[in-house]
Amino acid sequence: MIFDLIEQLRYANFKMDCIRFHEFNAKRQLIALKNNHIDISITRGADTASSEGLEQIILHKAELFAVIPAAHRLSGKKMLNLDELKDDQFVVLSEKFFPFYNKTVTAMCKNAGFTPRLGFCANGYVAALATIAAGSCVGIFPRGIVNSIIPGYVYIPIRSEDNFIDISCYLRKGEDRKEIIDIISIIRNQLCNFGLSDI
């Protein structure tokens, strides 16, 4: 998404020499935003516990998929019901760095009639996908969460109405600088024009 955004900003003749990118987990982004270290935060999921004093703009809803090992018994399915994974162990993300993620996964599983068996808590997306590729766990993630293809796992759509996670933009309440408002407008247009459901 970021590199497409850069191209869209250039296309809109945005002054590029004032832009710097930082890569933080969602919790650190919101802290940096509150402390005036960054001007915009783009995250997956809503961390309402850390968003006091910030405005949240939901840009998009990204579809969540069952991510399972390539050799898994269900890997050939075109779509599955989440309860088909009730006997599998799930990989989740560190609560410290991804506080919203585990709540989302747990809620989805409970809506499907079971409590997920947690097999591993990964400290990031690459570690989670590698664990799935190794064959020891399954997970629930959006597509395109890493910029490299890791072999050994497959994405399968989930038959559900709650299999989405918000892609949100946060900014400080009262933010009215034109360049910040312009960037948010370009991000929104990019998501609409390109149909990016997998960021």
State the helical fraction: 25-40%
Q: What is the mean pLDDT?
A: 84
SSE order, one letter for each helix or strand: HHEEEHEHEEEH
Number of strands: 7
Oligomer: single chain
Instruction: Give the structural class.
Output: alpha+beta
Q: Could you describe the largest sheet, including whether it forms a barrel?
A: 5 strands, antiparallel
Distance, first to last CA: 6 Å
Shape: elongated
Number of helices: 5
Low-confidence stretches: 194-199
Specify Rg, calculated over alpha carbons: 18 Å
Which band does the percent of strand residues land in?
15-25%
Summarize the model shown.
The protein is an alpha+beta fold. The chain is built from five helices and seven strands. Helix 1 (about 1-10) crosses helix 5 (about 180-195).
Give an account of the 3D structure.
The protein is an alpha+beta fold and 199 residues long. The protein has helices spanning 2-11, 26-34, 99-111, 125-134, 178-194, and strands at residues 41-44, 54-69, 89-93, 117-122, 139-142, 153-157, 164-172. Strand 3 (89-93), helix 3 (99-111) and strand 4 form a beta-alpha-beta unit. Helix 1 packs across helix 5. Residues 194-199 have low confidence and may be disordered.
Tell me the layout of helices and strands:
Elements: H1 2-11, H2 26-34, E1 41-44, E2 54-69, E3 89-93, H3 99-111, E4 117-122, H4 125-134, E5 139-142, E6 153-157, E7 164-172, H5 178-194
Helix pairs in contact: 1-5
